[in-house]
Amino acid sequence: MAGDKTVESTGFMGWLDRRFPATSTWKAHVSEYYAPKNFNFWYFFGSLALLVLVIQIVTGIFLVMHYKPDAERAFQSVEYIMREVPGGWFIRYMHSTGASMFFVVVYLHMLRGLLYGSYRKPRELVWIFGVAIFLCLMGEAFFGYLLPWGQMSYWGAQVIVNLFSAIPFIGPDLSIWIRGDYVVSDATLNRFFAFHVIAIPLVLIGLVAAHLVALHEVGSNNPDGVEIKEGPKDRHGRPMDGLPFHPYYTVHDIVGVAGFLIVFAAIVFFGPEMGGYFLEYNNFIPADSLKTPPHIAPVWYFTPFYSMLRATTDDFTWVLSGAAVLGALALLVKGRGRGIARIALPVILIVVAVLLRVLDAKFWGVVTMGGTVVILFFLPWLDHSPVKSIRYRPDWHKVVYALFMIDFVILGYVGTQPPSPALNLTSQIGTLYYLAFFFLMPVWSRLGTFKPVPERVVYHAH
After folding, report:
1. Which pLDDT belongs to residue 338?
2. Average pLDDT, the chain
3. Which residues are annotated as a binding site for heme b?
4. What is the pTM of this model?
5. Domain that holds residue 366
6. Binding site, annotated residues for a ubiquinone
7. Binding site: residue ranges?
8. Number of domains within the chain
9. CA dist 261 to 48, 89, 120, 278, Å?
10. CATH number for the domain harbouring residue 119
11. Is residue 61 part of a domain?
12. In this predicted model, what pLDDT tens digit does every residue of 339-360 receive, in sequence order?
């Protein structure tokens, strides 16, 4: 060891460490960061999300070298990349496939956090940073979606931006401000390009760094929900239920990376359009402001929330208003607060019930679509379960979570289809279940018989 210290103090690393915390950072976040030894395949998706972020940044840089953010030349520049630039088709398909795979990985990463209670104390800030990353990804995907300047890009942006006009008082002016014009035009393309290439990536990288720093400060969760930092430690003060992230989990994650890249390459080379879900057929047609596509729908990763937007009709606001009134009455009858606190929430629910009938249903559709994402920020305070992991919850909790996952997939499918009475009813039922899952979580999450949580992680060598 003495010889190693001499080398470090006199060698290049010693010179660097006196000026930059390279070795200490490596030790703190990689080689001496102890992660629980019972990680399973669900823990691949965090590192895969980081991998896809790198893929998107690198391929995006090469695309920007040839792309023209001009309404007259944008579509032609994409065609030029596909047909004339050496390897351009490969870079473009990697980027378009990466956009969809990013959401696949992030949705699964968030699902793992939901199942194992990774948002619970002391990881509330880790979860909040993660949801902020998800919002940034949605913004990044939306702004980038316009750039090919195809038919679906153009009309999709037109529809989404027009939604902001439903906001009372400021809506119409806000829509014009976002577009930079009265319709989606060259000004819109330029500002969307600036946000997609510069503004949001900078915020996204900062949030990813904050997410990792916050995670390594409190430690990783595990399938048992046991805090290894509070468990037994060896004579060096290291958790006995943990393993150094490097080399154990860096090698472990290579397995996940290899499997992911096989699937990724198969899509890029054999089916980059994925039947019109990754790349819509209408986006291979130049944007035409005089010809509206028969059915306008966002990309698949937005469709669950788009379904909730479409579900919020005038009739549906009656249902939501009634639910708000029932919730207010239940709180008044069984409320546990005192004084003003006891009546504040019921009064708020009554006000919401009234506003649901006063304001336009289109506005409440926008609120529902946005609120179903924003509510994720409050998940750490909605879950009152005495245990973190789904492993030790009552069996009927597992059914509730399974129905939530099925509901989300159904909402996603419905959002890709043209509206019909049957599908609208399906999306309304799905929206009600989605909202009830979170709003009623303080009640149902603490009901039932919970299994005892072990003092140490349950680990079987493999």
Report:
1. 59
2. 90
3. 95, 109, 196, 211
4. 0.92
5. 300-445
6. 216
7. 95, 109, 196, 211, 216
8. 2
9. 10, 18, 32, 17
10. 1.20.810.10
11. yes
12. 565 677 788 888 888 888 888 8
